[in-house]
Amino acid sequence: MERTAFISTTIPYVNARPHLGHALEFVETDAYARFMRTKLDDVFFLTGSDENALKNVLAAEAAKMSTADLVARNARAFQDLQSALRCVPDHFVRTSVDPLHLAGATAMWRRMEAAGDLYPRDYEGLYCVGCEQFYEPVELVDGRCPEHLTEPERVREQNWFFRLSRYQDDLLKSLESGALVIHPETRRNEVISFVRAGLADISVSRSATRARGWGIPVPGDDSQVMYVWIDALTNYTNALGWTADDPRYQRFWADATQRVHVMGKGVIRFHAVYWPAMLLSAGLPLPTDLVVHGYITAGGRKLGKSLGNAVDPDDLIARYGARAVRYALLATFAPFGDGDVTEERIVAAYNTDLANGLGNLVSRVTSMIGRYRGGVVPAGSLDGGLGPAVVTAARAIDSAMTGYDHRAAIQHLNTLVGQANAYVDEHAPWHLAKQAEEADRLDTCLLHTAAVVRALAALLRPFLPDAAEEILVTLGQPASYRLDPGTWLSGMAGTAVEKPAAIFPRIDTPAT
Ligand SMILES: [Zn+2]
């Protein structure tokens, strides 16, 4: 039986260019997808752009361009950022133009309607245009949106409503049984409390006039377009072609061992409550895992264009390189907490762990094999003693990544780098090389350190895929090499090692 999984980022609004918070979610999800691929037969990684939002219409009006042009231009900027950071999704869904999405959202509406779950009703509420969300007065901070710090508008109109209240018990069952797991557990507990407190029906359409005619029309009601959540959330199954008998839907959703959504904490309710309830209404399987990351902050506040403190990831990449930015996001941010970003932090993580740590290890091991053994990894007959460290690190990384903790995984990887560097210092091959009777010990030391470097490259792959391949190529190994801790030494002796390249050149500390 084939084992497959689905994993997605949320689809960001594309009313502006991406900020560093988007970059964090992209690299986290890409790293999780690459890790899952080492364990499963196939993984589908989905990302995209949420284009049918009023926010996009307002941004286009301000920029004096058509909404279609604005979303196309900005969606491209998000795709370019993903490429720069070596995030390689299987599909990028654009919700205003993807025919599978339009068909899927419409079919989802019809299914929910057929289930008796959609009905028209008058609605009046406090609406934040930035969030495209109605807020209860109690949710506001000093009368302002907690995300945007702006005052919401009072809006009254007739909408279609979804009978969310009908799914309260089924949702609780899924959450409490662990059929739907929310990481971390504190978020799971928040969601369970929210559902237990009672679910009110939610508005799932808005007037086509207020939406400026932009959005997916409600089937059978031209006066309304779908409200952002039914439209946006269904992208996950729509992109797999669930209405079109697409084999990808069966393989990566219906039959998948895991269906994972990665998201920021601001949209957890929509993914943990509204989306599963919609799936229950339509009779489709629920996601299995929701991974909720925190926010990158500046002085303790969330990054965002509307707050005027956005950090441009393209600037950081231009200054320090994509490798340093991707590494810092994965190595220094706690997966479920908030954290401030500074350029000093990016540079320090890169220089300490990669330039001085792993990079130095690769360089000294390949240089010594060149100098003492003509560039060919020798066969060693003795036990080098590093095997247990490799097995321990591989297990610890596996366990950390299974729990979506990329930072802990990288810490375990760096522990093994430290152990390997210490091993080289302790065995001092430069002394062994001067004594003919120590040839066996020198061979063993070189073989074992080369094999540890190869293991490290394989373990590094989810986090820095390009660097991992460069290290493997330097070692004369196939770029696709996968680590099996039980046979971590096999196939290493006899390979020709290239002259060491500077895989992690030092970055100059930013001027203060
Ligand atoms: Zn808001």
From TrEMBL:
Keywords: Aminoacyl-tRNA synthetase, ATP-binding, Cytoplasm, Ligase, Nucleotide-binding, Protein biosynthesis. GO terms for biological process: methionyl-tRNA aminoacylation. Its EC number is 6.1.1.10. Residues 390-508 form the Methionyl-tRNA synthetase anticodon-binding domain. GO terms for cellular component: cytoplasm. One of its GO terms (molecular function) is methionine-tRNA ligase activity. This is methionine--tRNA ligase. Residues 6-149, 152-365 form the Methionyl/Leucyl tRNA synthetase domain.
